[in-house]
């Protein structure tokens, strides 16, 4: 007997499975490919609160607490570093926006530090001259998503969750008592709870239960350099969007920026236009990259809703169905807290942290 | 009008370009090298004056013919030497030409990307003084350099004897040839090899020449370790220790398939090559409508076959474009290619893949030199339950570095297969990702 079926072995689904298993629930985690092999495993690796909309901050702060003891949670450090996250402003208007954000988020405990041109140069001399100022969130950081996301699934398994990989769901029914989930490999599962954490592919599950959402896919363009001398001591982004970059302990710099394209329903590539754009423009923000070589590019498939906010919480049509998807390229940091919130709904009927803003009802006229 | 593009100016690419031009189609020929000829007929830099006979031996007349063809073609076609194809997307190739990013749209494309050595690492393989067989040969052919003064040649495959012979002939001291294939395998292969008597005779000649000149040839001898501190000082196999200052090693060749992968060609497991290869029909048509494959880049058959396959693929391009061709020619070429294919089966019998390599690789052996991943680290990931090559890569970085698995990918797959108890064909292949070779920041982009 199973209590909960979780669809999707990304960081959200695997976290939910882990938290549920820790609370004594009998869980089956069902993944079409390999756990953590899509967006959760191939994203930039930013573990960042800075820049999030205000109503995401309570969950994001909870996630921040969970990340603090990552080894305790999943058994590995996942190259997680609280390096700080530096958001750069390329104009005075952008810097004013950073100042306004710092003001609005004062009560949330992000500890943002605004750095003017001179302070930025003094603390981060490697930043390109184009940046007029920046906002530093000292306790934000970055981690290796390739390692972290699969480790959540493995931790869930160690806690007793049954993890089914390469199990593509073909059919879901609800027989008035339980969900019946049928997979292409013959696997048949039934449970009273169903968690829809299927990422970019979650829309079809919602639609099947009569609550279609306008979800679309997007594909970030990512690339990595060969190992370079370590100069970046923070993860960086740019106000208003553009290139973001971090450097791992091994010395490789990971950069993202712009959009790629879908190769098929499951695979994506960054595309030459975005790659060349990064290679051409990274120099003004990160002058030390001049002459470095990009050795690999990649992309993934991320789910976006029109307001770039996720869907988290109970279905409006089907009791027992919970959603957690559509993180608009920013779900890696939130993942563990979302998994926990979904587990709390199953076990206690409600999440401890506010999630009303993410209800699926917002798409129902 | 969009051109027919040929990628690679080796025997296949040159022959494809010749064929197209002869039928009134002016191709665009893109090549990474400074001068056409590919690796096998790699041409010495301008101003170097060694004779073709010195450089190419028995292959001198073929090499000279290829170079002559290249010289005739160069002014008549859109020839782009020293140009890297780093990506393919949506009917367009992305190029890097002397630090400038450019692109070219194609109506049809012939992929003739050739091959590199297949490397099965042994302890010490990253020491200075260790080269692949192909690299050792290029040093000699291209720049007239030997890789050392006392050189050992190890591994297996026809190139082993050829390069050892070329080195000895050029005056280098060849201290030993270690062939992991036993003599009995070569005897077993004889019936199939007799189908190409001239090629067989050359192989036997090199072997006999080495023995006649007092160069020890050890068959059934597997290189176990390359000794040295700062550089190579010797090699070990079985109970033997032998001093040398350079080692050339490889186990036959592997196809360069990354471009075919980025172009979306379907791949299938090929038992003969022990590799995933882009599928092609007898004419060289791939699974993608306008993409054609020729030469060693789609399965190892050697230079003579590559020349024929280049012509055959070009004829297919012409046929598919509605250009009239001599209708008898394709059948002739396909028949000749089939003959060489039979010979290839014989070679694989004569120089079998060393199946025991993965089991014998010590845990400390560095398999991926770019990311410094050892056999033991790969095995540890497999022991956690992973068996698909891309998953193993995600967990331990094998194949994630500068070469993108071109050097270590096959060896890593062997270790994953052996450790997980799966067949080598079941562990998958590394996903192709741009850039095919590294791309610099600050690249100039042509509008």
From TrEMBL, chain A:
Keywords recorded for this protein, A-Z: Oxidoreductase
Domain FAD dependent oxidoreductase: 3-344
Lineage: Bacteria, Pseudomonadati, Pseudomonadota, Gammaproteobacteria, Pseudomonadales
Record-given protein name: FAD-binding oxidoreductase
PANTHER family in the record: FAD-DEPENDENT OXIDOREDUCTASE DOMAIN-CONTAINING PROTEIN 1, SARCOSINE DEHYDROGENASE-RELATED
Organism of this sequence: Pseudomonas extremorientalis
Ranges in a coiled coil: none
GO molecular function term, any single one: oxidoreductase activity
GO cellular component, as recorded: cytoplasm
UniProtKB/TrEMBL annotation, chain B:
Protein source organism: Pseudomonas extremorientalis
Residue intervals of the SoxA A3 domain: 368-443
GO molecular function: oxidoreductase activity
Residues covered by the FAD/NAD(P)-binding domain: 3-310
UniProt name for this protein: FAD/NAD(P)-binding oxidoreductase
InterPro entries: BFD-like_2Fe2S-bd_dom_sf, FAD/NAD-bd_sf, FAD/NAD-binding_dom, Metab_Enz_Cyan_OpOx_G3PDH, Opine_Oxase_asu/HCN_bsu, SoxA_A3
Keywords: Oxidoreductase
Gene3D superfamilies named among the record's database cross-references: BFD-like [2Fe-2S]-binding domain, FAD/NAD(P)-binding domain
SUPFAM superfamilies: FAD/NAD(P)-binding domain
Protein origin, superkingdom: Bacteria
